[in-house]
Amino acid sequence: MSLDEKLDRVLMRHDELEARLSSGNLDSQHFGKTSKELSDLVPVVEAVKAFRKAKTDMAEAEAMMASSDADMKALAEEEYYALKDTLPGLERNMRLMLLPKDEADERNAILEVRAGTGGEEAALFASELFRMYQRYAQLHGWRFEVLEVSDTGIGGIKEGIATITGQNVFARLKFESGVHRVQRVPATEAGGRIHTSAATVAVLPEAEEVDIKIEDKDLRVDVYRSQGAGGQHVNTTDSAVRVTHLPTGIAVACQEEKSQHKNKAKAMKVLRARLYEIEREKADAARAADRKSQVGSGDRSERIRTYNFPQGRVTDHRINLTLYKVDRVIEGELEEIIDALISHDQASRLADME
């Protein structure tokens, strides 16, 4: 299908949706769905019309350049070259608008950070990464709610899980999934040797109950007494909850709240996100050929980034980006890296459209 045919389809769909809404024949459910699709299409249609108008104006200016009137010819040339400069930007903006959208982009996210190889140093690094995303969320005005933290008692964490709520959270964070590696001299290292350790990050789109139907018969719910680092009891009631999804074997534990009910609700939120991600991965497998051109597969075993403290650098291996500001990045200044990852993904998908 040619580009013009694609653009015609967009305009036709826009007109069709407008006609449906003005007909007054839609029930509340279909009215809401149609309104949402139309509102999503409006900026696309505006971009298409701006691009087409610039092309038409440019053709008219080119025709006027043949005028025998010197003043008219000069004005036409000025307009022609101005439009020639702006047209590529209008076309790129329009093509970006036409890219298929990930329906999960607008969702909130579940963040999971786990210590990997490297013992206590890996646990300390996992704790720093968890705080890095918390700080990044604060800088964006997002809400960061800790669901579960399994700490080591000396500053590190074995695992940290949180929900991040705000605008386009998953769209901004979805490329963070994978293995993050740190290279530095541990505070406990007397010889001053550089150690390498790792932590795993997973960012999952938050799922609603309507997305994933979980049957009660498929769940095993265990309750137990909450414990803190080193095994000391946090409270004397059985408020901690572990929910196991029997068909998949996925288990989620939560003990952050004093209420058993609240802990179960939080555990169910994480379980739904993990099951939803499995469904997304199945759908993505059908588009495996497209995925190889994207920034990352979201595979948690894929090494994506190295934080080298002795050299003060952060390197994202997927796009060969190196920044010499590791201290600022670990404090949550991720914008430059995330923008580069999104731009790279868009460029790859634009190339696939050609």
Q: Quick summary of this structure?
A:
With 354 residues, the protein is an alpha+beta fold. It has 9 helices and 11 strands.
Question: How would you characterize the overall build of this protein?
Answer:
With 354 residues, this protein is α+β, with helices and mostly antiparallel strands. Helix content is 47%, strand content 21%. It has helices at 3-23, 28-64, 70-98, 119-139, 169-173, 260-285, 288-291, 326-329, 335-353; strands spanning 109-115, 143-151, 157-165, 178-184, 195-205, 219-224, 240-245, 250-254, 303-308, 313-316, 321-323. The strands form two sheets. It has an eight-stranded mixed β-sheet, sandwiched between helices. A hairpin with a 4-residue loop joins β9 and β10 (313-316). The N and C termini lie close together (11 Å). Mean pLDDT is 86; it is low at 229-235 and 289-294.
Topology:
Elements (H helix, E strand, L loop, with lengths): L2 H21 L4 H37 L5 H29 L10 E7 L3 H21 L3 E9 L5 E9 L3 H5 L4 E7 L10 E11 L13 E6 L15 E6 L4 E5 L5 H26 L2 H4 L11 E6 L4 E4 L4 E3 L2 H4 L5 H19 L1
Parallel strand pairs: 4-9
Antiparallel strand pairs: 1-3, 1-5, 2-3, 4-5, 6-7, 7-8, 9-10, 10-11
